[in-house]
Amino acid sequence: MRRVAPAVLIALVVLFGTACSGSAEPPPVSALGPVAMTGDPRTADACALLDPQLFTGTIPPSPYPGVGDAVGSCRLIGQAEPYRPQSAEASFAHERSMTITSAEPPEPAGSATILRPLPTYDVCRRVVRLVDGTLVMFAGRTISEQARIGADGGPPPVADCQVAERALRFGLARLAGTGITHGPSHQPESVLERGDACAALGDPSARLGLTDPPRYVGFADRHCFVGTPAPGQPVAWLDFVAMDTLPPYPTPRDLRPEIRPGREGQVSSYPGQFGSACQVLVPWNITNYYVRPGPKQWEVVRVVVELPVDVLRACDLAVQLARESVPRLPAPPA
Fold this sequence. Notes:
Blueprint: E1 62-64, E2 69-70, E3 74-81, E4 84-94, E5 107-109, E6 112-115, E7 124-129, E8 134-142, H1 145-149, H2 159-178, H3 197-201, H4 205-208, E9 215-217, E10 223-226, E11 235-243, E12 258-260, E13 263-264, E14 266-271, E15 276-288, E16 296-307, H5 311-325
Antiparallel strand pairs: 1-3, 2-11, 3-4, 4-8, 5-6, 6-7, 7-8, 9-10, 10-11, 11-16, 12-13, 14-15, 15-16
């Protein structure tokens, strides 16, 4: 369950068969056989689903893990149109820990189903739901804030959804051909790829005032959600995210809560999906992509608590849960 950024909702426009600025035509929607996740989900290769034919232009496409997305995701940078750098991203999730609402009627693709959620201010998504409940998620983003809002401060570019749609179509072709492939980590220095979110979170039921609440285990054990996902219900979750840069945090260092020796947390509140939300971000590790020298990213432990009314209590509880959880994770490098 990710924090939803403030959204400017736009009408969903999907241009089937429309190529991006000289790039290859995307294949028609492939009818998948019984494709499902097999083997260890922690070694599932999201990069294998991103086709370099997505983009042409002056920026050579180069895949690397997606910014601000789940650990284990992958991103391809390119240009759909001149002077507008964009990213196509691929990641995995599971329907047991994430609810996807499609803005269009779901489209069958053999044994799979395609969902097209309404785009938000900064991202457009396409989702393939496989027979076993695995969600293969494709996203299009405009990287530059200036390019995204345009000179007149307009809505996000339609090109975000074009990129997401092209990523979907090329990705479906790869799924139809090879299924979900596995391989060594693209970030061999990753610590949290091997983490178990539910083992770290433990049982927060008593702190939430709940008795035997439902627990949702996310893809590859990298996401754990406790509580009933409904407005007014107390919930808590822990997951692992990747960030190119840490968000600005004006609180002086000596006033930040220490989560474990040498590791402070960044605490922030916001209107949540189910109540007043508070999150604690704990920077955990800096990784390199497998190509050296390559881009560095932060791996971050995120703990979120949502309560019906009291955001201050939500923040106190989120800090407590973070302090209890992080010692149970693989230790970051000294």
